[in-house]
Amino acid sequence: MTKDVVPDIVIGRLPRYLQCMNLMAKEGLHTVSSGVLAARLGTTAAQIRKDLSYFGGFGKQGSGYPIYHLIEALQEILNLDRIWQVAVVGAGDLGRALARYKGFPRRGIEIKLLFDIEPNFIGTKVGAVTIQHVDYLEEEIQYHGIKIGVLAVPAEIAQKIADRMVKAGIRGILNYAPVSLILPETVHEERIDPVLQLQTMMYYLGDD
Amino acid sequence: MTKDVVPDIVIGRLPRYLQCMNLMAKEGLHTVSSGVLAARLGTTAAQIRKDLSYFGGFGKQGSGYPIYHLIEALQEILNLDRIWQVAVVGAGDLGRALARYKGFPRRGIEIKLLFDIEPNFIGTKVGAVTIQHVDYLEEEIQYHGIKIGVLAVPAEIAQKIADRMVKAGIRGILNYAPVSLILPETVHEERIDPVLQLQTMMYYLGDD
Fold first, then answer.
1. Could you tell me how many helices (H) and strands (E) chain B has, helices first?
2. What confidence tens digit (pLDDT) does each residue in B90-138 have?
3. Exposed, middle or buried by CB within 10 Å (0-12, 13-18, 19+), for B45?
4. Which residues 6+ apart lie within 8 Å of A17 measured at CB?
5. Which A positions 24-63 lie with beta carbon below 8 A of chain B?
6. Pairwise CB contact (< 8 Å): B79 & A203
7. How large is the angle between the packed helices B8-26 and A194-205, nearest 10 degrees?
8. What is the pTM of this model?
């Protein structure tokens, strides 16, 4: 099947299904119904069945999904059957927290490069990574063949760093800077901005 | 108009519109067309017009949106016309980065409380906040009448802390723990998990 028939919003939900299945496997479960899965994820059974149907049938009617089989299938669909190396730009509080985050290596993500411009930072280690000057960004990304970049820089310079990442071969950017990037269509952007999510929440909390 | 007629997905996009408009105002712009706004946000003009139409007409046909008027309206819709106090549980790398993040006070968010269980942390300051023992969570949240909590704790204890937050009066939880929470319907959850967003990206990058 061609990938572009699956809506982005469905792809965005698959990692959550996988995360929940992994937790269930740890709990010793072997099969799970779409209803139970839906309750755990705060969604509906119909949604889960429809999302998974894009990738063929995983469960027999009435018998639930075989958890281990579904975990393997989701890992393959999401290309998690390998280690993904990542380059982080910005070694402030956030960049450092990411470089030290144990949830990454545990799930196949290796922070391989960490860049900054602060002279006192260059050459020092954060977790297993040595901070390099951002002047070496292109050279290092190309040398390691890294496809994923993380922007942990101020909004003012985010677009400029993103442009340099893209020229160096980055194809996916996780953007923590509070600004929308303008990127070629071939580059995938995911944004994380806690302020936007808190503001969404405030809409619902305002009238209490 | 009643709030529940506006789909959640539309509400989730409003903070991005506001962020973009604020940037445009800084750049000295006074009006903007839905087309230009769409290009900056990587969406379509039709989507923006449809989203904003839930809240009445903001632009006259052909003359674009008046930026300052739209900023004010969006701030009012999202209840940003006040300071929102927030309680953070977990004073590890992430909790500390949040407590020090300058983007919060700048946008009306005050990290008022910070909790942990680590004896060496208790009583020390991070930015303007003093870390308190999590035993005081209920008392402090109630005393300050705080409605928003941030979970920056390991997955294993996230649900337990969330339950305590809800009992203390928290109505919105920004959840950084890599686990889905089970919450009453009256409590709004937003999740931030960089691994899930990186995994979504890997789907698109896998076949390069």
1. 9, 9
2. 999 999 999 999 899 989 999 999 999 999 999 999 999 999 999 999 9
3. middle
4. A37, A41, A48, A51, A52, A70, A74
5. 39-42
6. yes
7. 120
8. 0.87
